[in-house]
Amino acid sequence: MFTRRQALLGAAAAAMLAAMPPLAAAANEAEVAALPREKVTLVAPPFVHAHEQVATSGPKVVEFTMPIVEKKVVIDDEGTEFQAMTFNGSMPGPMMVVHEGDYVELTLINLETNSMPHNIDFHAATGALGGGALTLINPGEQVKLRFKATRTGTFVYHCAPEGAMIPWHVVSGMSGTIMVLPRDGLKNEKGEPVRYDQAFYIGENDFYVPRDEDGNFKTYESHGDSYADTLEVMKGLIPTHVVFNGAKGALTGDNAMKLKVGETVLIVHSQANRDTRPHLIGGHGDYVWEEGKFANPPAKDLETWFIRGGSAGAALYTFLQPGVYAYVNHNLIEAVELGATAHFLVEGEWDDDLMKQVEAPGPIPVN
Amino acid sequence: MHLHLYEAAVGAAAALALPAAIIGISGEPRGPSLHEVRPTVAIVETVLDYPLPGEFLAGGTPAAAPVENRAVPAFHVMKQQVSLADYGLCVADGACDPADAAPTGADVPVTGVSFLDAEAYARWYSKARGQTWRLPSAVEAAAAAAERFGGESFSAAADDAANPSVRWLRRYREEAAVKRPADPEPKPRGHYGPNTRGIEDFGGNVWEWTSTCYARTTLAADGSIESVTDNCGVHVLEGRHRAYMSNFVRDGKSGGCAVGTPPENLGFRLVRDEDSMIARARNWLRGAFRSAMADTV
């Protein structure tokens, strides 16, 4: 009944919609109202909020709240300061997990201390620019969006305000991932269930920080001050930083991810802007959903997997050998020089059958 | 063309804040300004316990560096690290490549220099002064650094011969635990103060090149050295902790480092062997003292 009017309005003045009273939805509103509701508290990546891998009940409305936080952060070991824009205060924004058929109900808050309008575009959602056309809010405003999770997989969400603001907000940190699990959980290529002991969410950021005439990174008083220079660097398409979780070394040292031999990890990797190619040095991807969509069978035994810019993928791996594992973007220049390296610390018994140093390094024998 | 060259020369001079006289306008022999002799500290002949640099294997597994009791002959060492301005004189003279260091008016140590750069400076400085100046060996650096000597921070020994990951994980955690916030900005010389020998800034944020090659040593069952493979494409740097870097590396972050935060900066200071005449005199005095002592017994 309202479909046509909605469509017209959407086409005519998407931005105005946000200011209008919410339109009454279709006849199923009462059904949605009758669904159980669950309130989820989001956690900062690489961790993922507690969730069921196999749903033990029917569809529900899952409520999330995310403030948008503009703030200055340090993004490398040289102390480079960066004017970041974040969902929930972290880069990437937190990962949300629901099941197929659930309704995602997000309260998005643009803090009064912010300086810019923001919104959210869910690649998992259908219509209205992924929700972007219904969520544009100014500092000091909030908005509530509901969408139905109709497709399974890992999907990027990001800010998409308008025009040139879109790429700038994204490469300033405004992206995250939602994972929509099949109600009966993940399955391998034979349709057999697979499970993980722990899920980690790694969001890859490409940053474009202007330099001064001496080649040093510039710092700016505000986001607005940084915009013109940053746009010039962005248009060169060569990032100054390619990092995981918002800063060089963010997932190393004390913040390295910890597991034990025999444990299975699900690594969700997103890149909202640019292609990347994760690789676990000394390990593999047992099952990899490169495109991140669980309706497709996973690829097996991958060495490196490809994450298209603007998507999130998922890799499942059971650690077989203890040690320090580097998880990198296998453009190794980006991994080592620009920062795209994380570490897994895995404890357990060494398996000589899998690998053994038969002879220690020593002089070449002379015959 | 000539004008451009002249401008470049003037630009370089201005950048280094040099008095014009040093640039050799008068046709004087170039080199460090001789009226500005770099202060040195005399290190007397000493004996010290010294953890050998490099990697060690015993029974096919990594072992801790053996500590040797070493005699170090007397030598002179620069009180301060070679400064950016001093290094700039060598650059202006065409004998050194420019360092990868931001120009500054402050009296900072030269940073962003490789082993090869340090060697080139030593050759130029020796020629200019008519003396033999060289990089210290790692054991000389230890003698000069005295209580500030860092050496290896953590044991390289295998914790469990059957499971190499135990050592890898321990080292990783130890490194993470001592990780400091990066502070790469070179400080004015003297900032880190003198050690008990009066040598300044050792163990600050500038690591110092030595003339000692990286080596991998295999130890016999009794701890004696079975075989050594030197790799003189990599040299030892001493500082807050020991580091090993390829000869051409100028940025500590890009080279390998045994432990902890990689060196923030790479620089150096030079040493000079004791003048043979003074050494002879000192030895004679020492001998006379010894025989005098012997007489009293």
Automatic annotation (TrEMBL), chain A:
Question: Where does this protein act, in terms of pathway?
Answer: Nitrogen metabolism; nitrate reduction (denitrification); dinitrogen from nitrate: step 2/4
Tell me the classification of the organism that encodes this protein: Bacteria, Pseudomonadati, Pseudomonadota, Alphaproteobacteria, Hyphomicrobiales
**How cofactor binds (record note)?**
Binds 1 Cu(+) ion.
Every copy of the Plastocyanin-like domain together lies at 71-183, 200-350
Key word Signal present in the record? Answer: yes
Q: Can you tell me which family this protein belongs to?
A: Belongs to the multicopper oxidase family.
Output the NCBIfam families linked to this UniProt entry.
Cu_nitrite_red
Gene Ontology biological process terms in this record? denitrification pathway; nitrate assimilation
Please identify the protein, giving its name as recorded: Copper-containing nitrite reductase
What organism is recorded for this protein? Mesorhizobium zhangyense
Uppermost EC category: oxidoreductase
Q: Which Pfam families match?
A: Cu-oxidase (PF00394), Cu-oxidase_3 (PF07732)
Main location (coarse class)? periplasm
Q: Which gene carries the instructions for this protein?
A: nirK
* Quaternary data: Homotrimer.
Q: Where is the signal peptide?
A: 1-26
From TrEMBL, chain B:
InterPro entries per the UniProt record, alphabetical = CTDL_fold (IPR016187), Sulfatase_Mod_Factor_Kinase (IPR051043), SUMF_dom (IPR005532), SUMF_sf (IPR042095)
| Residue ranges, compositional bias (Basic and acidic residues) | 177-188
Region (Disordered) location: 177-197
N-terminal signal peptide: none
**Which parts of the sequence belong to the Sulfatase-modifying factor enzyme-like domain?**
53-272
Q: Output the Pfam families linked to this UniProt entry.
A: FGE-sulfatase
Q: Which GO terms describe its molecular function?
A: formylglycine-generating oxidase activity
Tell me the domain of life. Answer: Bacteria
Protein name in the entry: Formylglycine-generating enzyme family protein
Q: Which organism is it from?
A: Mesorhizobium zhangyense
